[in-house]
User: Fold these one by one.
Assistant:
Number 1:
Amino acid sequence: MSTDVDLLVVHAEELATPAGRGPRRGAEQDQLTVIRDGALAVRGGRIVAVGTTAEIQARYRAAIVHDARGCFIVPGFVDAHTHPAFVATREREFDLRLRGVSYEEITRQGGGIFRSVDDLRAADDATLAACLRGHLRGFLAAGTTTVECKSGYGLTWRDERRSLELLAREAAALPLRVVPTFLGAHQMPREFRDRRGDYVRELTTQMLPEVKRLGLARYCDVFCDVGAFTVDEARAVLMAARDLGLGLRIHAEELGPSGGARLAAELGAASADHLIHVDDATIDAMGAANVTPVLLPGTVFALAKKAPPARRMIERGLPVAIATDFNPGTSYLQSPLLLMAMACAVLRMTIAEALTAATANAAASLGLADECGALLPGLSADAVLIRGGSHQLLGYRFAEGPIERVLARGELLDPRAFGAFGAPPLPT
Ligand code: NIG
Ligand code: FE
């Protein structure tokens, strides 16, 4: 007797998944389950069973059967750190950096995040919504089925609020799982330059309680670094967020040894991200406090920075995650395939470790280990069908890797219908 389900995906050259739910540490991060001639059964948007095609076809039948010959299947990618609420690109700054002007100097001159803040504040809701829509569709087309999205280019209540509200509205129209994060502490707004404490107070006593009351974000993040927020300012913001019941994330040790990773350990943050300048004692403190390191090799690549110590983190038992950091300043990257290639080549992670970092461990860092990040019964039916015969093409084959189908919450999508990278932002 076979059981009726909604969808079968059969005859994948390989089905490859982290062998269990995240967080996966140490040697576990390198362990995948790989099934040749793999298949999946899906019902009600969840994975019912995973196995060989023969096993699945013996037990299940469905009106829709998708033949995945010529493709391998991996879990839908989970991008645990992105900044998609922006309306214009900043390629001129990239060119300036190539001519020797530093990121910090560009910020001091009023560019950088300030530039994107000016652009967003000047944009009407329709423009901001169109840009968000394009970015979200770009993630889905690239194979990302869960994405953490930060605000942070508004820095006024009006502009932070509409960033998060429009994000929620656009997300609701797609089968993409969006995890919203409030990043009102992305940069000290110009108008508060000489009274920094007033902005921190506005964040802690006004914006954060409203974010919570309106249910606009699940996490709060702070850019704790040279030229952004100090450790004491970050502590004040994150403690207020924690008191309200929001989860904590932090940008730390990107531009210099900021002390942000220590703070993440002290506060029990869900993640500390970037971590270029972190030392072994701090890695151990993060491990003891269950802070997931989220590494962002696209930013390392575009800023030509030194790589964060991914291998030492894995050796010391931390469940390393990777993310694109998609943003207009330091990482115009949406592709999880190129992200994986950079994790292998730049961070020296194995292909299996990088896949776990971009799926199960990223999901765990978002509190979603029981929802997504692996191809296991009971989890959301999120998967990517990529042309090729082996999951080891990931990382090896750089960005290239034709995505045939994206399975998002049980819905089988043709990414070509989404346009290769979604709608581009409006020209500046
Ligand atoms: O993660 N570091 C802070 N935020 C972004 C860059 C933002 C920007 O330059 O617009 C990052 O790299
Ligand atoms: Fe970032």
Number 2:
Amino acid sequence: MRLLVTGGAGFIGSNFVRHVLAERRDVHVRVLDKLTYAGSRDNLADVLDDARLEFVEGDICDQATVESAADGADAIVHLAAESHVDRSIISAEAAVQTNFVGSFRVFEAARAAGVQRLLHVSTDEVYGACLGEPFVETDPLEPRNPYSATKAGADHLAHSYFVTHGLPVVIARPSNNYGPWQYPEKLIPFFVWRALRDEHLPVYGDGMQVRDWLHVEDHCRALLLLLERGAPGEAYNIHGGDERPNLATIRIILDELGKPEGLIRHVEDRPGHDVRYAMDASKLGALGWEPRVEWESGIRATVRWFAEHRDWMERATARGKAYFEEWYAGR
Ligand code: NAD
Ligand code: DAU
């Protein structure tokens, strides 16, 4: 199988590339990645010299670039995105361009290449905040922040390409991922980074917002399954099944690092903050998938991984210095 992975130098992308190279001998993986602040060759360092992996630096918003990268591909896993909600609040420009326009370019390139599968990686955030029963795939999309709105727009466009053009699109809707190589602007690695430096942890609002954590290894297994066995035109929820209020997650981080709870500081809330995400993933379960990584041991191992990779965190956070200064000023 010849596979194009967009965003393969990011958090989930690099884990997915490693997973597919380990699980499928007869595969050629081409990564297309712009190497924004969030992406780095560092994240793929241990597999970059695998002859089955090819790295192309380029922007999915450029039609010629993405068409050339998709040329000869049997399938595409589309992960490239501006993935951070807080950044999309400061400015939605990059998210609109990459997540919506860039996805459009990927869908066009997939048509031109005649791929057998396009796995479009969306998010649980497209459903909006969950105030009742966990969302199922047929629920309406009601995104509430600029990031999730761009992702929902791309989901609709992807589905339209299935209906109108017969593009064999499968949509994945994963919940909050955690694990190695996550860029340290997201809750878990960011708070590990701050706690290691004895800096306060800026908890938005009361910290009782609920997230359903999915280990990135479980996620990658689900993505490979959907790539090979997902039904075209269908969407699939992927959850960890571990709903936790943020404060409970933060307390585990502090405990694992041996740091005091006094580092917690409640700050101004994120505008449009979704209070809870929750999904039913039984449609994916029917294909034989279930999460395997147990939450508490998974997060503790993840915290230790970040603590053991301080040089990597140093380089990654240096790339985001201006953002951290702007967003956390006064928080
Ligand atoms: P990430 O920010 O860690 O990585 C994104 C990657 O995309 C980076 O390598 C970046 O360089 C690349 N990229 C960005 N813009 C690009 C462009 N214009 N052209 C080419 N490459 C570009 O993100 P992630 O957490 O790995 O998320 C991957 C995908 O999964 C995204 O689509 C995201 O919306 C989705 N998702 C993430 C989570 C999560 O918890 N991290 C949960 C659900 C869904
Ligand atoms: O649910 C899936 C989504 O999960 C993905 O689509 C996104 O790409 C990914 O970034 C993530 O979005 P969240 O907004 O849920 O993740 P984040 O790590 O930014 O925040 C997790 C929770 O922690 C959220 O309730 C906000 C809170 N938080 C986060 C940060 C960075 C804080 O309280 N303080 C912080 O400084």
